[in-house]
Amino acid sequence: MTHIATCHCGATRLTIPRLPEKAIACTCTFCTKRGVLWGYFRPDEVVVEADSEDRVYEPSGVNRHHFCGRCGCSTWSQTPDWSAVEENDKEPVERISINLCLLDDTDVRDLPVELLDGRNSW
Ligand SMILES: [Zn+2]
Predict the structure, then answer these.
(1) Torsion angle in degrees (nearest 10) through CA of 5, 119, 29, 37
(2) Distance from residue 45's CA to the centre of ligand 1 (Å)
(3) CATH number at residue 87
(4) CA 56 from chain center: how many Å?
(5) Residues spanned by the domain of 90
(6) pTM of structure
(7) How does pLDDT run across 37-95, given as a tens digit for each residue?
(8) Ligand 1: distance of its center to the CA of 70 in Å?
(9) How many angstroms separate the alpha carbon of residue 75 from the centre of ligand 1?
Protein backbone atom coordinates (compact mmCIF):
# COMPACT_ATOMS: atom_id res chain seq x y z
CA MET A 1 0.00 0.00 0.00
CA THR A 2 1.47 3.32 -1.05
CA HIS A 3 1.72 6.28 1.27
CA ILE A 4 1.91 9.99 0.47
CA ALA A 5 4.12 12.51 2.22
CA THR A 6 3.68 16.19 1.50
CA CYS A 7 5.27 19.37 2.75
CA HIS A 8 3.00 21.77 4.60
CA CYS A 9 2.04 23.81 1.54
CA GLY A 10 1.81 20.79 -0.77
CA ALA A 11 4.45 21.93 -3.26
CA THR A 12 6.40 18.70 -2.68
CA ARG A 13 4.65 15.33 -2.83
CA LEU A 14 6.49 12.09 -2.18
CA THR A 15 4.98 8.65 -2.84
CA ILE A 16 6.50 5.62 -1.10
CA PRO A 17 5.52 1.98 -1.66
CA ARG A 18 5.17 1.02 2.02
CA LEU A 19 5.93 2.21 5.51
CA PRO A 20 9.44 1.38 6.71
CA GLU A 21 9.76 -1.01 9.65
CA LYS A 22 11.26 1.79 11.71
CA ALA A 23 11.91 5.51 11.69
CA ILE A 24 15.50 6.65 12.01
CA ALA A 25 16.27 9.55 14.36
CA CYS A 26 19.72 10.75 13.34
CA THR A 27 21.55 12.67 16.05
CA CYS A 28 23.85 14.66 13.75
CA THR A 29 23.62 18.40 14.24
CA PHE A 30 21.79 19.00 10.96
CA CYS A 31 19.07 16.38 11.52
CA THR A 32 18.64 17.36 15.17
CA LYS A 33 18.19 21.03 14.37
CA ARG A 34 15.60 20.19 11.71
CA GLY A 35 13.73 17.64 13.81
CA VAL A 36 13.23 15.00 11.13
CA LEU A 37 12.58 11.24 11.26
CA TRP A 38 13.88 9.30 8.29
CA GLY A 39 12.65 6.35 6.29
CA TYR A 40 15.13 4.86 3.83
CA PHE A 41 14.26 3.75 0.30
CA ARG A 42 15.91 2.87 -3.00
CA PRO A 43 15.65 5.64 -5.59
CA ASP A 44 13.41 3.53 -7.84
CA GLU A 45 10.89 3.08 -5.01
CA VAL A 46 10.09 6.76 -4.53
CA VAL A 47 8.10 9.09 -6.75
CA VAL A 48 9.02 12.73 -6.19
CA GLU A 49 6.73 15.47 -7.42
CA ALA A 50 8.03 18.95 -6.69
CA ASP A 51 7.64 22.34 -8.28
CA SER A 52 10.14 25.17 -8.60
CA GLU A 53 10.04 25.74 -4.83
CA ASP A 54 12.19 22.64 -4.30
CA ARG A 55 15.49 23.78 -2.81
CA VAL A 56 18.65 21.79 -2.09
CA TYR A 57 21.14 22.21 0.75
CA GLU A 58 24.49 20.50 0.17
CA PRO A 59 26.64 21.17 3.24
CA SER A 60 29.30 18.60 2.36
CA GLY A 61 28.96 18.26 -1.38
CA VAL A 62 28.02 14.60 -0.90
CA ASN A 63 24.49 14.73 0.48
CA ARG A 64 21.64 16.60 -1.21
CA HIS A 65 19.02 17.68 1.32
CA HIS A 66 15.80 18.92 -0.26
CA PHE A 67 13.44 21.35 1.41
CA CYS A 68 10.48 23.44 0.35
CA GLY A 69 11.35 27.06 -0.38
CA ARG A 70 7.75 28.11 0.25
CA CYS A 71 6.84 26.47 3.59
CA GLY A 72 10.32 25.50 4.80
CA CYS A 73 9.68 21.80 5.47
CA SER A 74 12.60 19.40 5.15
CA THR A 75 11.30 16.92 2.60
CA TRP A 76 13.81 14.32 1.36
CA SER A 77 17.50 13.66 0.93
CA GLN A 78 19.76 11.94 -1.56
CA THR A 79 22.75 10.33 0.12
CA PRO A 80 25.11 7.43 -0.45
CA ASP A 81 24.06 4.24 1.34
CA TRP A 82 27.28 3.64 3.22
CA SER A 83 25.98 0.37 4.71
CA ALA A 84 26.41 -1.21 1.26
CA VAL A 85 30.09 -0.33 1.43
CA GLU A 86 30.51 -1.76 4.91
CA GLU A 87 28.61 -4.94 4.17
CA ASN A 88 29.73 -5.69 0.63
CA ASP A 89 32.92 -3.68 0.11
CA LYS A 90 31.29 -2.05 -2.92
CA GLU A 91 30.79 1.49 -4.09
CA PRO A 92 27.88 3.09 -2.27
CA VAL A 93 24.54 3.15 -4.04
CA GLU A 94 22.23 6.12 -3.76
CA ARG A 95 19.68 6.08 -0.99
CA ILE A 96 16.60 8.24 -0.66
CA SER A 97 15.65 9.39 2.83
CA ILE A 98 12.07 10.48 3.27
CA ASN A 99 11.08 12.73 6.15
CA LEU A 100 8.38 10.52 7.68
CA CYS A 101 6.99 13.46 9.64
CA LEU A 102 5.43 14.55 6.32
CA LEU A 103 3.25 11.45 5.95
CA ASP A 104 -0.37 12.48 5.51
CA ASP A 105 -2.09 9.22 6.48
CA THR A 106 0.23 7.95 9.20
CA ASP A 107 1.13 9.22 12.64
CA VAL A 108 4.88 8.80 12.63
CA ARG A 109 4.76 8.30 16.39
CA ASP A 110 3.23 4.86 15.70
CA LEU A 111 6.50 3.66 14.17
CA PRO A 112 9.36 2.36 16.31
CA VAL A 113 12.22 4.83 16.35
CA GLU A 114 15.87 3.82 16.11
CA LEU A 115 18.54 6.28 17.13
CA LEU A 116 21.40 6.73 14.67
CA ASP A 117 24.49 8.23 16.28
CA GLY A 118 25.23 10.67 13.49
CA ARG A 119 26.76 13.16 15.88
CA ASN A 120 29.72 10.85 16.48
CA SER A 121 29.74 8.99 13.19
CA TRP A 122 30.57 11.76 10.70
ZN1 LIG B 1 5.97 23.49 0.96
Answers:
(1) 10
(2) 22
(3) 2.170.150.70
(4) 13
(5) 3-117
(6) 0.90
(7) 999 999 999 999 999 999 999 988 889 999 999 999 999 999 888 776 666 677 778 99
(8) 5
(9) 9
